[in-house]
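Handoff note, outgoing to incoming analyst
You'll be picking up this chain. Sequence as last confirmed:
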Amino acid sequence: MSTTMKLLYSQLDWAQKRRGDGYSDAVKTKSQLFSTHFEIDPKDLDEINAKWPVRPLVETAPEPHSVAIVPPIVGTLQVWPYNAFGVVARALKLLAVPADTGIGDTIARIIGPIGGEAYKKWFQDTFGKTCGCQERQDHLNSLFPLTPPPI
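Most recent structure output, in case you need it:
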């Protein structure tokens, strides 16, 4: 039985943008195409990925007529992405209070009464390790800060 990877066409489109022209054609030639997805042998995909390495994202400057102040990237996202995480973070930003430094603080404050310390104790007692809530909170605060980084 051969193992293949199933990938959506949207994933291939995204990879094409990050890897360059010709990438999707190379993948399609080695794949079995279906109406909703394609299947490819992982070894073939590894070979193709080696030929087309991921290009770094290029930050673009604002238009000359724009009055937006673009803060430098200092360990945080300059612009919250328009993916599932960015959309949820934008929604949670509406629930933030002035004391919250980032989205992690907002989430912790919202779900604290539901689980909070009782959940952390239960997790520690059950699994013998911490739940990682504080680390996740700090990471979300660094990715989605509610105040702009200092310029």
